What does this fold into?
Amino acid sequence: MLNLNKVLIGMFLFVFAVSTTLAFGQEIPHGKWWYSRHSSEKLNLSDEEKSKLDDKFFESRFKLVDLKSAVEKERLKLDKLMESETLNEKAAMEQFKKLESARADLAAERFGFVMEVRNILGFERFLQLNTTFRHLKKKSAKKYQGKRRDAMGRYPE
It folds into this structure.
């Protein structure tokens, strides 16, 4: 039991370290940011580029629906194994590997969309998007630092 816990903790830390490293390169806004007048003008986006971004966004979101579902299903299976009175360590470890594989597939699709954005924008505008987004995130974090959200998840004015 102690070895299983060590292995599970080790695998979790490895996955966390890898995912945070990948996430660092994924500093782009969520949603259809290219429809924001500010972003569109600042990056000098053409109608053709916006159309390509729309297409790639739809393709990625469509895939993400199934990938998120797969993660949830694998998590439920692992929960069932871990909640049983007697623990089958081998089965739990195999299920954990399946869960991590599903999470990796989900992360790969998200990163794939970021690469598509990079291909459409090119190097300079992609860096500009990253820089702008990081700046806005920091600004927003300072604005709401220490404030609590209400029951609907909104910050008070």
User: Anything to note?
Assistant: The helical segments are 2-24, 37-42, 47-83, 89-121, 123-144. The first helix runs from residue 2 to 24. Residues 32-130 form one domain.
